[in-house]
Design goal:
Layout lengths: L1 H20 L22 H9 L4 H7 L1 E4 L8 H4 L4 E4 L10 H16 L8 E4 L17 H7 L2 H16 L5 E2 L23 H16 L16 E5 L13 E2 L3 H8 L1 H8 L4 E4 L3 E2 L2 E2 L4 H11 L5 E3 L12 H11 L4 E2 L4 H13 L5 H18 L18 H14 L1 E5 L11 E5 L6 H5 L19 H9 L4 E5 L12 E7 L17 H11 L5 E6 L7 H4 L4 E4 L8 H7 L41
Parallel strand pairs: 1-2, 1-11, 2-3, 3-4, 5-7, 6-8, 7-10, 13-14, 13-15, 15-16, 16-17
Antiparallel strand pairs: 8-9, 12-17
Helix pairs in contact: 2-14, 6-15, 7-8, 7-15, 8-10, 12-13, 15-20, 17-20
Bound molecules: alpha-D-glucopyranose.
Length: 614
């Protein structure tokens, strides 16, 4: 008899505790006017925990959904489905791609979210991965590979501080950056999103980027109106897949995981990164989106990450089974918010069913929603949903473009400079050759205005040709040859030939050969036949094979994907600034040598850390 009494007492106590701390509740409750979560002096942790107890299951599940705004059947669905977040995927812009149109779009969505019963504000995320790159006229900085060549953490922090202001000017408060991947095989289409093959460089620059976005290394800096949420991505070993196959399988040892791919996350968590995005890829056959051990035991428990864990774009659908089985797997593995990004009605109904069938425990739902609410309280969204802001004229400002131009200068790596062809002489006659010398889209690469990017005059900026004309001055005659045929005469003292890759992003950039195009090879060889010195400029998202043209050029400069400020290239070519860039990746002779390790110095055409100066 006594035993039964104690069992009842225990059950009663558990229920009592549960109802007090708000876990387990599925029915909506009306919060009192003095509810703790409304108290701005209370901690974000206490406010998040307090709010949880008033939420219905439907409201909790809605918070776990992130939808791309282009897939909203109606803006009313934001309130109808109590959505926790929206995003703009690459190129998902308002009809008029202006700062004002972005801001009013995002504010309009936020007002819908505030009309819900509890008025929980919306998070809005975007890939501002080299400036606010979806927005026309924004400053486009060098992609991470170029920043890796600078080895300059202070510069990276300034760049992301500037980017945060441009993002804030559009009313957005969350970027899916920095990518802290450690690419091991340059055949991967996302190599340029990585700072380096060296985990220590990635860790240092990734942490600097987080401080730039978030305003410092302490999470409390997120409360400032000019700071935005950073995202360390993609957890983990996205850059270690076999053959560099995007979303492929990283067949790695525990030592490689610890000493290469996890390293940047240690520093990211130490610098209070607010959110982390999980990788599409697998490790030894296990999809990261189902890897409960690495998510819960390593990232959460061991590294101490307490922020928001978000999935990648529809990544759950890459798992085996039905939608219900996929969601059950990823949520129970520890994901907090799902970047659906389209079928939110199916998500909503399927999740309700999974909880009702106890396939996802309520404790996991509460844990996920707690992290989501905590992030919103940390950002200050509850106290002012439009808190993150900056004046519209910071977007593409002269000050930001000057930072970008400095970054371009410091990113250039001089691989060859025979006969001191560089720096070019003012007063000389310079022939600039190749369509890529005058193409903003090529300079910017992927993730610019659209997801894949494209060649042409896609946004405001300065091409390399325009930069040379500006920097060289009137005393120097510059002649432009968009194309060059063997019969063309070149009346010049020196030729600057620009070659490289066309824009790409993600899997569309996976490349098994890494060869220069036949057109580019022919361009260099034709220029070399004119019996004048040739300075070759390479615009690429990674080291590409240049064996075929190396002997035809007297000077070779790796310019990576410099972005809108092409004048930064001219600053160095004309000798106003000395080149300081160092290779962030070893430069291969052949794809059969890949993956090329830092220690494989002998094999490389140019070893890791190589770079000449004047
Ligand atoms: C993409 C990328 C990820 C990006 C996300 C949202 O597929 O993998 O880096 O942040 O979708 O655009």
């Amino acid at each position: 008899m006594k035993k039964i009494f104690y069992v009842f007492l225990l059950v009663f106590m558990v229920f009592l505790v549960a109802s007090c701390v708000g876990v387990g509740s599925t029915e909506e409750k009306a919060p009192p006017s003095d509810a703790l979560y409304k108290d701005i002096s209370a901690s974000p942790e206490d406010r998040a925990r307090d709010l949880l107890q008033y939420m219905s299951l439907e409201e909790k599940i809605g918070q776990m959904a992130m939808v791309d705004r282009q897939f909203l059947a109606s803006e009313a669905d934001i309130a109808e489905y109590k959505l926790g977040a929206l995003l703009s995927g690459g190129g998902s812009a308002p009809y008029r791609n202006t700062v004002e149109a972005w801001r009013s779009m995002v504010e309009g969505y936020q007002k819908k979210a505030l009309s819900t019963r509890l008025g929980i504000p919306l998070l809005y995320g975007i890939d501002a991965v080299h400036g606010h790159n979806n927005v026309y006229g924004a400053t486009i900085f060098p992609h991470n590979i170029g920043l890796g060549a600078t080895r300059d953490a202070e510069l990276v922090e300034r760049i992301e501080r500037a980017t945060a202001l441009e993002v804030a000017a559009t009313g957005i408060h969350w970027t899916f950056a920095p990518c802290v991947t450690v690419p091991q095989d340059e055949r991967w289409g996302r190599t340029y999103e990585g700072f380096s093959e060296d985990p220590a460089v990635v860790a240092e620059l990734g942490a600097a980027a987080i401080r730039g976005f978030q305003g410092g290394s302490d999470i409390s800096s997120l409360g400032r109106p000019d700071t935005i949420l950073a995202t360390a991505k993609h957890f983990v070993a996205d850059g270690g897949t076999e053959g560099g196959v995007d979303r492929g399988d990283a067949k790695i040892t525990e030592e490689e995981l610890q000493n290469i791919h996890l390293v940047p996350y240690v520093d990211a968590v130490k610098n209070s990164v607010a959110t982390i995005m999980v990788s599409f890829s697998s490790i030894n056959g296990v999809k990261m989106h189902s890897n409960k051990h690495l998510i819960m035991d390593v990232l959460r428990a061991k590294l101490g990450f307490d922020g928001l864990l978000v999935s990648d774009w529809a990544a759950h659908t890459e798992l085996k089974g039905s939608l219900a089985q996929q969601l059950e797997t990823v949520i129970n593995a520890g994901l907090d918010m799902i970047m659906i990004p389209d079928s939110y009605k199916d998500f909503y109904s399927t999740m309700l069913k999974l909880v009702e069938e106890k396939k996802i425990p309520m404790s996991r739902i509460d844990d996920a929603v707690y992290h989501i609410l905590l992030t919103k309280f940390r950002l200050g969204l509850f106290d002012n949903p439009f808190v993150v802001s900056a004046p519209a004229d910071v977007v593409g400002s002269a000050e930001h473009r000057a930072i970008a131009r400095e970054a371009v200068r410091k990113s250039l790596v001089v691989l060859k400079n025979d006969k001191s062809v560089l720096p070019l002489k003012r007063g000389a006659k310079i022939a600039v050759i190749g369509s890529k010398a005058n193409d903003i889209g090529i300079q910017c690469g992927g993730w610019t205005i659209s997801w894949q990017g494209k060649s042409g005059n896609i946004t405001k900026g300065t091409t390399i040709l325009e930069g040379l004309r500006e920097v060289a001055g009137d005393s120097t005659e510059i002649v432009y040859h968009k194309n060059l045929s063997p019969s063309d005469e070149i009346d010049a003292d020196v030729a600057v030939v620009v070659v490289g890759e066309n824009p790409y992003a993600e899997m569309k950039g996976d490349n098994r050969s890494l060869k220069l195009s036949a057109t580019d090879v022919r361009l260099v060889k034709t220029a070399a036949e004119k019996n004048i010195p040739v300075a070759l400029i390479i615009l690429s998202g990674r080291p590409i094979l240049i064996n075929e043209v190396l002997d035809y050029a007297d000077a070779v400069v790796a310019a990576w994907l410099p972005g809108t400020e092409g004048a930064g290239v001219a600053d160095v070519l004309m000798g106003d600034f000395k080149p300081v860039g160092k290779l962030p990746f070893a430069w291969p002779r052949s794809v059969s040598d890949l993956p090329l390790k830092i220690e494989d110095e002998g094999k490389a055409l140019f070893p890791y850390n190589y770079g000449l100066t004047f």
